[in-house]
Amino acid sequence: MKVKIADLMEESGIKFGTSGARGLSVDMTDRICYAYTKGFLSYLLEIKDIQPGVDVAVAGDFRPSTERIMAAVARGITDMGLNAVNCGRIPSPAVALCGITRNIPAIMVTGSHIPADRNGIKFNKCAGEVLKSDEPGITSQLVDLPEDMFCECGDFCNPGRPDWPVDDTAANLYKQRYTSFFPKGILEGIRLGFYQHSAVGRDLIPEIYEELGADVVRLGRSEKFVPVDTEAIRDVDSQMAKEWAKDGDFTSIVSTDGDSDRPLISDENGKWLRGDVAGILCSKFLKADSVSTPVSCNTAVEKSGYFPQVLRTRIGSPFVIESMNEAVRVGKGCVVGYEANGGFLLNTPYINFGKDLAALPTRDAVLLHIAILLLAKDEGKKISQLLHELPARYTASGILREFPQENSQKILKKFGGGSEDENCAAFTQSFKTAVGSDAKSVNLTDGVRATFENEEIVHLRPSGNAPEFRCYTEAATQERVTELNEKCMEVLDTFNC
Question: How far apart are CA 184 and CA 290, in angstroms?
Fold first, then answer.
């Protein structure tokens, strides 16, 4: 039976977002995962990105449903006449790097930072991530789903797992990317705490830092999946980091999210850096010529004056990648991008130490960790001192979970559905008590983002792949932005009914 991917998306509710396909793991049946894999690969064959018979790299995170979904993906690959290579449980950027290096597709089974009852599949073409321009081609694919292959519930009638041993090539490539580029011992004198929780890179990444000379202490390992969201850090994670810092005499505490593409890094006091601030510091170390970053990120990147060019994008790595690609097309040198979640992307080779670090145009945690540690070391400063040198702009974000999408659409229409004056008036009416000022402009690049007369910012945006709604705020002090975010979240709570 031939089925169109777009029809399956409508039927299942599992849609393609900026990070691939995601949803509740019970909805991501074998049938759906098998079909989406075939749709992705059919598209690559159609555009001649791959030839029949090639390898396809597959990896996954530590979620309970990942093994089953990896098996469904592998079966889809095999039935397309391609060869599924089991790269094991490794970071998303590691399997992406393997694909780019070997010029083959790469598929990561992960839900990233979202709760354990959800999962996802992230698709990478031979050159890197699937972009928004690829989605129509994938969703229009017709794939063959034999009726006798699946039970009524969507699981395989014969659910046997593939006998495919783990190939360590991808893990080794990722490790060697950094240990062969940075000089031996470059992190000597640095004492790191590594918060392992259930991050898929919790063993591989600390080994990289140790090989570069750091003293690494492993902390907080969990065999139960922990949904660490680097963009909305849990209070318990903030408190643990501060307690570890008191006892550990660390230069920094570092970590990643579930699939280990988004970094966490703290100062010496265990205070986590906002991802967009960390991105500025990483870009500074790399001496970037062009920085692409979503509209939601801290405006200190422009105010710092560190970079010849700053480009603003919609939220999501595909948009950042498209912006970076444009910067390369017009001849910019060191082209980078980062997101509010801390994910850092290197779109051109980085030249230092007499070597080239190859481009890796997908979210990566390791480069950001190392760059900030070396920036502090080179300047003889603590990480907290690096932060104090940035323009006084602070950001915060809050999240409403289980927020109905119809409520999200009502909010977008209320604050962004009219003229500029009407949108400003709507923001002023609802948020003036929280901000203490009138809205002077509204940006509709992604969600609705208002700048007020006092230069404070309120940005409202629904998640693209989960029933969640985020509120980003920006102000001149940490205390004020925290207070502002709390007040704005109280306003948003009134819409969740």
Answer: 29
Residues of the chain with CATH 3.30.310.50: 394-493
101: nearest Cα among 358, 368, 335: 358
Q: Which residues contact 190 (CB under 8 A, 6 or more apart)?
A: 213, 214, 215, 251, 252, 373, 377
What string of DSSP letters covers 132-183? GGGHHHHHT-EEE--GGGB-TTSSBSS-PPP--PPPTHHHHHHHHHHHTTSP
Per-residue pLDDT of 193-247, as tens digits, reads 999 999 999 999 999 999 999 999 999 999 999 999 998 889 999 999 999 999 8
What gap in Å lies between CA 146 and CA 125, rounded to an integer? 26
The CATH architecture one would assign to domain 394-493 is: 2-Layer Sandwich (3.30)
| Of the candidates 264, 263, 259, 315, the residue with the CA atom closest to the CA atom of residue 108 | 259
CB-CB contact of 244 with 193 (8 Å):
yes
CATH code of 2-168, in short, is 3.40.120.10
Determine the Cα–Cα distance for residues 295 and 443; give it in Å rounded to an integer. Answer: 9
Residue written as token pair 């009524």: 152
pLDDT reported for residue 18: 57
Confidence band for 113, pLDDT divided at 50, 70 and 90: confident
Structure tokens that stand for 245 in this block = 């810092």
Residue 8: closest CA among 111, 140, 184: 140
CA–CA separation, 47 and 257 (whole Å): 33
Is the pLDDT confidence value at 126 over 70? yes
Neighbours of 364 (CB within 10 A): 29
**% of the chain at pLDDT higher than 90:** 86
DSSP 119: E
Are 219 and 246 contacting, i.e. CB atoms less than 8 angstroms apart?
Answer: no
Distance CA 489, CA 431 (A): 10
**For the chain, where do the domains classified as CATH 3.40.120.10 start and end?**
2-168, 187-388
Catalytic sites, residue numbers: 112
Q: Which of 278, 296, 361, 285 is closest to 325 using CA atoms?
A: 361
State both tokens at 182: 């940075």
Position 465 scores a pLDDT of 64
Which of these, 298, 281, 266, lies nearest to 378 by C-alpha position?
A: 281
Kindly report the three-state secondary structure assignment for every residue of 375-432. HHHHHCCCHHHHHHCCCCCEEEEEEECCCCHHHHHHHHHHHHCCCHHHHHHHHHHHHH
The chain-wide mean pLDDT, for the chain, equals 94
Q: 3-class SS at 78?
A: helix
241, two tokens: 């980091």
- For tokens 């920036």, what's the residue? 375
Q: Are 356 and 350 in contact (CB under 8 A)?
A: yes
pLDDT at residue number 476: 94
Fold exhibited by the domain 187-388: Alpha-D-Glucose-1,6-Bisphosphate; Chain A, domain 3 (3.40.120)
